[in-house]
Amino acid sequence: MSEQRVVIVGAGMGGLCSAIALAYQGFHVTVVEAADAPGGKVHSREVNGAQIDSGPTVFTMRWVFDALLRSVGTSIESEMRITPLQVLARHFWPDGSQLDLSADARESEAAIALWSSGDEARRFRDFCKPHGNFTPPSKAR
Ligand SMILES: Cc1cc2nc3c(=O)[nH]c(=O)nc-3n(C[C@H](O)[C@H](O)[C@H](O)COP(=O)(O)OP(=O)(O)OC[C@H]3O[C@@H](n4cnc5c(N)ncnc54)[C@H](O)[C@@H]3O)c2cc1C
Predict the structure, then answer these.
(1) 62 touches ligand 1 (CB under 6 Å)
(2) Is the peptide bond before 56 cis (omega within 30 degrees of 0)?
(3) What's the CA gap between 92 and 16, in Å, rounded?
(4) From the CB of 64, is ligand 1 less than 6 Å away?
(5) Residue closest to 16 by CA, chosen among 48, 36, 42
(6) Class of the CATH domain delimited by 1-82
(7) Where are the domains of the chain?
(8) What pTM does this model have?
(9) How far apart are CA 2 and CA 23, in angstroms?
(10) Do the Cβ atoms of 22 and 136 come closer than 8 Å?
């Protein structure tokens, strides 16, 4: 273990992913969190006895989490249980219009085209393309 110490403020996805990468590189990592539990935006609240997830609504950029966990010798499947849903989010507007986002990006694209325009659907398709590089952490010597 390195003598180099790192303090990460906030145990949201950003802080936790940084902690994984830095700990793997041999830093002595301390994560401090103001809330009662880790997760940041990813948490649930009890409303009238029911647990309601506050998000994320959509698990975006999964390939980044895959790459990070693989690079430290584990996997998403080993660390958590994920249950895919067909309808990810249902949006309503006061004028009565509705937009469902689906687990199938092509279905979402078609729904966006109907709800808005072909241009918006194309933008959504571009947004869904994997982008951004992930540089795996190198293991401590
Ligand atoms: C309404 C909304 C909907 C979203 N929906 C999605 C979605 O569907 N899919 C998706 O991928 N992303 C979504 N996002 C974006 C996603 O929530 C963020 O990208 C992600 O949470 C960022 O992670 P983070 O660790 O940077 O911040 P956060 O998740 O906000 O975590 C920050 C943490 O730091 C803690 N903290 C802050 N200040 C201090 C302090 N001084 N001391 C100690 N702890 C502190 C907080 O308590 C919190 O736990 C959404 C965001 C919002 C606001």
Answers:
(1) no
(2) yes
(3) 33
(4) no
(5) 42
(6) alpha beta
(7) 1-82, 84-127
(8) 0.81
(9) 9
(10) no
Question: What are the distances in angstroms from CA 17 to CA 24, 43, 97, 109, 111?
Answer: 11, 16, 38, 30, 33
CA of 38 to the centre of ligand 1 (A): 11
Q: How much is the pLDDT for 133?
A: 67
Question: ∠ CA(83), CA(84), CA(88), 5° rounding?
Answer: 125
Q: What is the pLDDT of residues 46-76, one digit of tens each?
A: 999 999 888 887 788 888 999 999 999 999 9
Question: Is 60's C-beta closer than 6 angstroms to any atom of ligand 1?
Answer: yes
Block residue for tokens 């996805």: 13
Residues of the chain with pLDDT below 50 are: none
For residue 79, the one-letter residue type is E
Q: What is the pLDDT of residue 85?
A: 87
